[in-house]
Amino acid sequence: MVLECAAQPLAGSGTAAAGVAPVQQQVSPATNSSGNTCELVYSRPGSSGSSGRTPVLQAAPRRPTAAPATVAGQPGADPRLVRLTQQLVARAGKPADMRVLLAGQSLEAADVRRLLTYLDRQGAADVALDAFHAMKALPQFDMDDPVLRTKLIKMHSRRPKDTAAALALYDEMVADGVAPDAVCYNITLGTAGLGHHWGRVLSILGDMQAAGVQWDAFTCSALLSACQACGQWEQALEWFRQAQAVPGLQLNVVHYTTLMSCLQKAGQWEQSMRVFKEMEGQGIVPDVVAHNAAIAACAKGGEWEKAWAVFLAMKQAGLRPSTVSYNALISACERCGQADRALEVFASMQRQQVAPNTVTYNTAISACAKAGLYARAQALHAEMQAAGVPDDVFTLTALITACERIGHWQGAEQHFLEFQQRGIQPNTVVFNRLISALGRGGQWEQALAAFHAMQQPGAEQQQRQPEGGRRAAGGGSGRASQECRADSSNSSSSSSSSSSNSSSSSSSSSSNSSSSGSKVDPPFPSSQPAAAAAAAAAAVAAPPRREASAAAPAPAGQKQRARRRGARGSSSDSDSDGPEPVVYPPSSTARPDRITYGSLIAALERGGQWERALAVFEDMLAQGIQPNGYIFTSLINACEKGGQWETAVKLFKAMQQQDIPLDSMAMVARKALYAFPSLIKNMPAPLLDAARATVDTGRAARQWIEKKRDDS
DNA sequence: ATAGGGTTAG
Questions:
Q1: Residue A526 has pLDDT above 60, yes or no
Q2: pLDDT above 70 for A562
Q3: Nucleotide nearest to A51 (CA to C1')
Q4: What is the C-alpha separation between A669 and A679, in angstroms, rounded?
Q5: 3-class secondary-structure state, position A421
């Protein structure tokens, strides 16, 4: 309601998508510099932010499909270069063949430039690179044109993983004595930033200054973008002030917006808002994108009312909020736990005929999830699919979170499997949410199974052996995944790999544990390493429940999983031994992090599995992952439940040797004060004071709440 | 051959 009261002409009808600039820097190489798309080469179905979808509104296709833009179809294309382009592409990955082909050619620098452009349109940056080197080795080509060099660098600057090649081209250029001009420096600076090569940003800027090339507006823009990518907000402020002092350099709305975004991403949302106001003070009129940055800053600061105010101000200024504007505002509401507001904004967006995209739905679903509105979250997901807006891992994360919030672990599992069947690979965050949801549902066995599935190499990765070898050498991770295979053979999974692995698992576990002990400082003072290793091996071992299902024969694969899920969902009467545990398919992409271990340990703590919790803890240390206060708290609680106060004391001592922030320590100490008064003598005085303070604070809070209750 | 905005976490 409120959102629309600012008089707003019903904006040019069906062009809902027009204002929706898909941001996605470096996204798909599909979009080239001239805005043409080489969809045939690179189209990525999943790349979201797709502005083109106007699901709710019109069904009409946007444009009457023009013939796919091939190079040959371009007006004015040089047929000779077109042919050469195709011949080079046909020799992709064969630089020697390229050289043979090119040996019979002779091209002016301008023609080489054009050739590179054609290759770029084909999405063949790698071919261009090989062709470039082939030509450089041939005497008839003059490759010292800085524009040509720059173009080649630019071709490798779109995806972060290509940026190393781009920077190598810059180095090669310098080594060849070809002097970069301002444009080349600007592009290379931007490339280094995109690839998070902060050191290179600084060195290239040094080159530029040494060459006496002045900053221009693009230099400043590239530097600010680099700061954003590398999290260097203080340097961004510094350079911004420096640029303000450069004569003839007028900072514009793009500069201000980039700086705002940099600050906001670094957690400096108040500074970001200050920059927004400074921009207005300088007489620079903020556009939609600048407003979006301001809304995002408020969102990060947890100030949804401020975000709302900026949104309204934008409308008052006669600007039409874009999809991103709405997304930012919905996010602000989501972060503040204002699910109703978030849904209100979402509804308003649809009334205003602004097309929601993947991010919109994800954020709205997440808002519902946090509020425990699982049915609403599901409805939004269904609507999303009906509208043809692709869902992704963020959607899955939100749905699992929604299940977790209401204690519906079965739902979490179902969403996980359903997404995976549709080819959406779970990432670490998804696994973390799943493990947490299972743990909160009391399903520690399944949480452990999910953890193991996470570490198993997925289908594509199993072919690439070297990586697995590297990982196994690292320590406990290899052990855990081998254990997993061993126990999944019980429950029926893979047929061939189990026999060989089950025998090796015990020996590998002990060797891994001992190697890990020397590698990482053991914060948990395992005075008897052998005993600790044995405990670890025992505790990570197969959940007992799985053995019940050994009877099931088992081809691994999609059909089987679907069948299992069906059988499970249909009723609880499945066969003889009660519900069959779901087998999580191995994952390729996800690696456990601190949150994974924390969630798993919490799950085991809830299940009263203090030994397993300790074993997982050991595994975590072996991975080189530092524990935090949350994890120590879970472990100490687990020991409390198990009556293991001596272990708790050890953990507490270990915790003191770690770099745990003092407030976390105080939290644990506070718990310890209640649970293990005998710990008091082990606590250093300041910590004890802190613990008592938190106890007092809690007491004060309770008194305050009770007083309020009495008042009302 | 050159720049900006929005989403997930115990």
A1: no
A2: no
A3: B6
A4: 9
A5: helix
Band of pLDDT at residue A188, cut at 50, 70 and 90: very high
> Which tokens hold the place of A36?
């043409």
Choose among A372, A375, A376, A431: nearest CA to A407: A372
d(CA A546, CA A105): 68
> How many CB atoms within 10 Å of residue A570?
9
Q: Are A397 and A415 in contact (CB under 8 A)?
A: no
CA distance A449 to A485: 10
**Nearest by Cα to A289 from A309, A266, A260:** A260
SS3 A37: strand
Tens of pLDDT, residue by residue over A46-86, are 333 333 333 322 223 333 333 344 444 566 788 999 999 99
**Could you give the CA distance from residue A431 to residue A397 in angstroms, rounded to a whole number?**
9
Euclidean distance between the first and final Cα of chain A, in Å? 32
Whether nucleic acid strand B comes within 7 Å of the CB of A216, the answer is yes
User: Taking the C1' atom of B1, which residue's CA lies nearest?
Assistant: A151
Q: Which residue has the tokens 């919790």?
A: A613
Predicted local distance difference test score (pLDDT) of residue A536: 39
Which residues, 6+ apart, have CB-to-CB distance to A240 below 8 Å? A220, A224, A251, A255, A259
For A51-63, b/e burial (b = at least 16 CB within 10 A) is bebbbbbeeeeee
C-alpha separations of A630 from A50, A154, A240, A520, A664 in Å: 39, 45, 39, 20, 7
Q: Give the pair of three-digit tokens for residue A359.
A: 């991010």
Contacts 24+ apart (CB under 8 A), A334-337: A334/A363, A334/A364, A334/A366, A334/A367, A334/A370, A335/A299, A335/A300, A335/A302, A335/A304, A336/A302, A336/A303, A336/A304, A337/A370, A337/A371
**Average pLDDT of the segment spanning A681-693:** 64
Measured over the CA atoms of residue A629, residue A635, residue A640 and residue A644, the dihedral's sign is negative
Residue bearing the bigger pLDDT, A122 or A640:
A122
Distance in angstroms: CA A450, C1' B6 = 31
Q: How confident is the model over A549-559, as a mean pLDDT?
A: 32
Q: What are phi and psi of A653, to 5 degrees?
A: -65, -45
Using CA atoms, how far residue A28 sits from A23, A47, A90, A93, A356, in Å, is 11, 7, 22, 21, 20
Give Rg (Cα) of chain A. Answer: 30
Query: Does residue A294 sit in helix, strand or coil?
Result: helix
The C1' atom of B4 and the CA atom of A328 lie apart, in whole Å, by 15
Phi, psi of A278 (to 5 degrees): -65, -40
Q: What is the pLDDT of residues A199-254, one digit of tens each?
A: 999 999 999 999 999 999 999 999 999 999 999 999 999 999 999 999 999 999 99
Q: Which nucleotide is nearest to A437 (CA to C1')?
A: B10
Distance (Å, whole) CA A417 – CA A51: 29
* pLDDT at position A77: 81
Give pLDDT tens digits for A105-160: 999 999 999 999 999 998 899 999 999 999 999 999 999 999 999 999 999 998 88
Q: Report the C-alpha gap between A521 and A517 in whole angstroms.
A: 7
**Cα distances (Å, whole numbers) of residue A422 to A42, A49, A479:** 21, 20, 30
Distance in angstroms (rounded) separating the CA atoms of residues A602 and A641? 13
C-alpha A651: how far from its chain's center?
32
* Strand B nucleotides with an atom less than 7 Å from a protein beta carbon: 1-10
Asked if the Cβ of residue A584 lies within 7 A of any atom of strand B, the reply is: no
Q: What is the pTM of this model?
A: 0.73
Looking at residue A214, the DSSP 8-state letter turns out to be P
Identify the H or E element spanning A41. Answer: helix A39-42
Per the structure block, which two tokens stand in for A519? 């590698």
pLDDT at A691: 64
DSSP state of A231: T
Mean pLDDT of chain A: 74
Q: How far is the CA of A292 from the C1' of B1 (A)?
A: 29
CA distance A197 to A188: 11
